């Protein structure tokens, strides 16, 4: 009987060791899964932060430089200033209806192109898509159209 009891105790102890071993294995698996879940959550949070940062930078760029529809995602080009802004000095006025002018970069580009001409003062209106050209001398309308075409826009009509 003594051997049966010790065999019984031996089997009981062995069963308890297996339970403990299985418990520790299960504990190891759950801690491993918790580590993986934490690591996965960390990676997802980092990706979301990166997306938010890129979105904020894009919004900042659009606020500072405007939405550049014409492919130029940089700051507006420097405005070519006309020194003589007295309308009385410009007896000739032309109003051009221009196609393809969609943003402030477009209007600035057209103004700069025309303001480079000697004795010309151009002002583009983005809302009406019209360019008012004042000149000290009479200009050939074909020359104005050619300058605007060189800039990449189309003159629809000259009013």
Would you give an account of this structure?
The chain has helices spanning 2-65, 104-115, 141-150, and strands at residues 92-99, 120-125, 130-135, 154-158. Helices cover 54% and strands 16% of the residues. It folds into 2 domains: 1-65; 87-158, Alpha-Beta Plaits. The mean pLDDT is 81. 13% of the residues are buried.
> What is Rg?
38 Å
Can you tell me the CATH class of the largest domain?
Answer: Alpha Beta
Helix content: 40-55%
User: What percent of residues are in strands?
Assistant: 15-25%
Series of H and E elements: HEHEEHE
**Proper CATH architecture of the largest domain:** 2-Layer Sandwich
Total helices: the number is: 3
How many domains? The number is 2
Determine the N-to-C terminus distance: 121 Å
Structural class: alpha+beta
- Mean pLDDT across the residues is 81
Shape: rod-shaped
Strand order of the largest sheet: 2-3-1-4
Low-confidence stretches: none
In CATH, the topology of the largest domain is named: Alpha-Beta Plaits
Major sheet size, sense and barrel closure: 4 strands, antiparallel
- Multimerization state: single chain
List the helices and strands and how they pair.
Elements: H1 2-65, E1 92-99, H2 104-115, E2 120-125, E3 130-135, H3 141-150, E4 154-158
Descriptive tags:
alpha+beta, 4 strands, 54% helix, Alpha-Beta Plaits, 16% strand, 159 residues, 2 domains
């Amino acid at each position: 009987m003594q051997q049966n009891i010790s065999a019984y105790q031996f089997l009981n102890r062995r069963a308890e060791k297996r339970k403990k071993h299985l418990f520790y294995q299960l504990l190891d698996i759950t801690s491993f899964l918790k580590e993986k879940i934490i690591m996965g959550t960390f990676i997802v949070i980092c990706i979301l932060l990166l997306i938010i940062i890129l979105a904020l930078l894009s919004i900042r760029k659009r606020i500072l430089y405007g939405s550049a529809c014409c492919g130029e995602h940089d700051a507006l080009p420097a405005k070519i200033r006309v020194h003589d802004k007295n309308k009385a000095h410009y007896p000739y006025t032309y109003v051009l209806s221009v196609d393809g002018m969609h943003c402030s970069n477009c209007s600035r580009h057209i103004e700069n192109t025309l303001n480079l001409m000697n004795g010309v003062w151009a002002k583009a209106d983005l809302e009406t898509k019209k360019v008012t050209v004042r000149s000290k001398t009479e200009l050939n309308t074909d020359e104005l159209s050619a300058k605007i075409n060189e800039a990449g826009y189309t003159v629809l009509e000259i009013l």
